[in-house]
Amino acid sequence: MQVRRTVVGLAVTIGAGAAVLSVAAFALSAKGPNATPLTAKITGTAETAQGTVPHAWLDLATYPDSLAGEHGASGGAHPDWVSYGPSTNLHVPAHALVTVTIRQYDSGGAVTNPYFAKAHGTVDGTVSIDGKTETQAAPDAMGHTFTIHAAPTNQDPLFVSVPLPAVADDAKTAPNSDYPAPHVVVFSFLTNGPGEYVWNCEYPCGDGYYAKFGGPMSTRGYMSGSLTVG
Ligand SMILES: [Cu+2]
Q1: How much distance in Å is there from the Cα of 134 to the middle of ligand 1?
Q2: Which of 40, 63, 122, 210 could form a disulfide with 187 if both were Cys (CB 3.0 to 4.6 A apart)?
Q3: What's the 108 CA to ligand 1 centre distance in angstroms?
């Protein structure tokens, strides 16, 4: 998994015997080719450990190909690559409760590191999988993960990771759909101050690529993207 970063501003000012370092601003580069931002919808407020905060909602999906997400109906450059949709460029409010629903349509296998079969950084440390409250999913039947990482800057930390269970290999295509019925994964997390973060999948799902970490796993806009807070 590569995380690319572009330094857009770094200034050093020296004055009166004191060196003053300005804040280095980082921008995320290499977003998906058609990564129209997906902005969380805010409806009302929620009572949380941080008090009463806005409640924001995001709807995402993971697909066994690239025909339903940000690459268009033709699938773009790699129609057969696994993908997130409808966008990998996500915007959520600062100091808010964010509830994410992910419909997971893909098959999978055993995760490399069982740490990523567990929920981390969510409210109560739980994740709802098909309506059941869980703290983890089966490590030998993982489809993908949704994992937010804080870039190493002075912005507020944010680490959230949830497992997305695999759909059975022999699952039949659902009526009126191109895919089998998905697993529905719902989780909530609290944001702090504004920041730029990256997220990715930590289940090596790039079948056919080196150690399964190549292809869609290492190309922005498929199994990774950006998360802007604020
Ligand atoms: Cu994946």
Answers
A1: 20
A2: 122
A3: 9
Report CA(99)–ligand 1 centroid distance (Å): 20
Report CA(113)–ligand 1 centroid distance (Å). Answer: 13
Residue 193 has pLDDT above 90, yes or no: yes
> Quick one: average pLDDT of 150-158?
85
Ligand 1 centroid distance, CA of 144 (Å)? 4
Please report where in the chains the tokens 């489809």 appear, as a residue: 143
Tell me how far the alpha carbon of residue 132 lies from the centroid of ligand 1, in angstroms: 22
- Report the separation in Å between the CA atom of 170 and the middle of ligand 1, taken as the mean of its atom positions: 19
Bond preceding residue 157 cis, omega within 30 of 0: no
Q: How confident is the model at residue 53 (pLDDT cuts 50, 70, 90)?
A: very high
Residue 151 is predicted with a pLDDT of 72
Q: All domains of the chain, ordered by start, with CATH? A: 32-229 (2.60.40)
C-alpha to C-alpha distance for 189 and 48, rounded to whole angstroms: 10
What's this model's pTM, rounded to 2 decimal places? 0.85
**How many angstroms is it from 204 CA to the middle of ligand 1?**
6
The residue type found at 117 is: A
The candidate with the shortest Cα–Cα distance to 100, out of 52, 65, 147, 170, is 147
Give distance in angstroms: CA of 143 to centre of ligand 1: 6
